[in-house]
Amino acid sequence: MRRYLIGMRRLIAILVPAGLFVAGLVVATSTPGTDPEPAAAVDERAAAAMKPQDGNRDDDRRKRLAHRAAARRHARIARAGEYAAARGGRVAFAIVGPDGRLHGRNEHERFQSASAVKALILAAELQRIAAAGERLDPGIAAELRRMITVSDNDAATSVFARVGPEGLDAIAHRAGMRDFRSSTTWGASAISAADMAAMFADLGHLLPERFQRFGLGLLGSIVPEQSWGVARIGSERGWSVRFKGGWRPDPGGAVVNQTAELRRNGAEGAIAVLTDRQPSIPYGIATIEGVAKRLLGSG
Predict the structure, then answer these.
(1) For the whole model, what pTM was predicted?
(2) pLDDT tens digits along 195-242
(3) CA distance from start to end of the chain
(4) Predicted pLDDT of residue 210
(5) How far apart are CA 238 and CA 299, in angstroms?
(6) Residue 243: left if φ>0, alpha if ψ -120 to 50, beta else—which one?
(7) What is the b/e burial string over 249-267, where b = at least 16 CB atoms within 10 angstroms of the residue's CB?
């Protein structure tokens, strides 16, 4: 019996301190005077932490808007393509959107440039003057103004004599124009819609910095009677437009081309529409305007 009592005393001596330690742990993890936090509250906090934050919601919204904008753009391009396919002659177009991506129809097919190449002649002459460290002579400035704003062919021939095909090739290389082919006759240079749209989407970088304002100003000051096509449709929809067109009758059908840079509310882009084998120059202009209307939509 005595041995039994001694054993019990030892067991109590072990268990009592352990019980006090466990009780102390419960008290330490509970706020005095309150019950321990229910598991449901912990679950609610975890669920809240998993909910999208404001930044994530904004990202999701931007992605949805970008997706809708892309869908609208593709629908417009499809409508423009259907319209172009139904027109007489050969028609190609390209559009560079604010995101810098290029889309189009027959955009890498080559067309004779006619006066559309005068934009490259302008850039080549300004680069030549800048490289020589010369100032812009008033006589040359007047010549360039006639070449661009009223599309004067004699002025273009005079400037082209100074820059040559190699000057145009240098601008084409600078602009990343892969389809361009120069000619000893400036109006016979070969261009593509993709190349021209890419060039006009990056106009500022193709002109020497000290002549940018002058060169861009010319392309934004073309006389009203030549402001048809993309220029007219874009202006009606609130875009600021810099552009250059080219047109001429041809035994195989009229050549009518135009490329434009468009700017509005901080957004920038470019459209090129090239046509040949057209029944007439007015028909070609109507084709360009029809493509532009569908690419630009209601604005």
Answers:
(1) 0.79
(2) 999 999 999 899 999 999 999 999 999 999 999 999 999 999 999 999
(3) 105
(4) 96
(5) 8
(6) beta
(7) eeeebbbbbbbbbbbeeee
Query: Residue ranges of the domains in the chain?
Result: 73-296
> Given the structure tokens 């070609």, which residue do they identify?
284
Mention every residue, 6+ apart, whose C-beta is less than 8 A from residue 206: 123, 171, 174, 175, 199
Residues in CB range of 49: below 8 A, 6 or more apart:
none
By the 8 A CB rule, do 98 and 267 touch? Answer: yes
**Class level of CATH domain 73-296:** alpha beta
Cα of 48 vs its chain's centroid, Å:
39
- What is 112-147 written as a DSSP string? E-GGGGHHHHHHHHHHHHHHTT----HHHHHHHHHH
* Strand order from edge to edge, sheet including 90-96: 102-105, 90-96, 267-278, 254-264, 240-248
